[in-house]
């Protein structure tokens, strides 16, 4: 039996991409075989060619999200420049832009009680904070303070992501406003002589 002309065989990556779209649109519960098959215009048979069950599809989708939003970003920042100040600027701009585009991350945080999701969030969070600690350490901050500032930076990132997806008009929406906002973020996070972790 030949496939209809112009219709290609779906690849594993098509199912993963559709699962991520489903998470963005309806949360982790939306990762269900039949609705995603309908979204792709195919049958469950195509799914079982690539995955043994729904759990395997969810794991693959989580791995793809982790690669796209964390592993690739860490590699990009590490290779971007040798100057840690430039790395910090690049990192902040990159993650703020990503926070505004990534609709999967907030949906995953809402489902953090599910074991597979919790494991992915734990890996991503630790990797991201580890990168920020490294950048602050390279800027000359002692390790304890680098970690304290990294936690502050990551908390600010999560807050930014929440605002970007939940409260329209709060974040700056002009190019000039965004530049000023980013300058302020960088200035606060990298300021010398601020409160140290040992002071608290």
TrEMBL record:
* Keywords assigned: DNA-binding
At the top level of its lineage, which domain of life is listed?
Bacteria
Domain annotation HTH tetR-type: ranges: 9-69
Question: Which SUPFAM superfamilies does the entry mention?
Answer: Homeodomain-like
Q: Which residues bind DNA?
A: 32-51
Q: Does the keyword Signal apply?
A: no
Q: Does the keyword Chloroplast apply?
A: no
A GO molecular function assigned to this protein is: DNA-binding transcription factor activity
Q: Which PROSITE patterns match?
A: HTH_TETR_2
Indicate what this protein is called per its UniProt record: TetR family transcriptional regulator
Q: Which organism is it from?
A: Phytohabitans houttuyneae
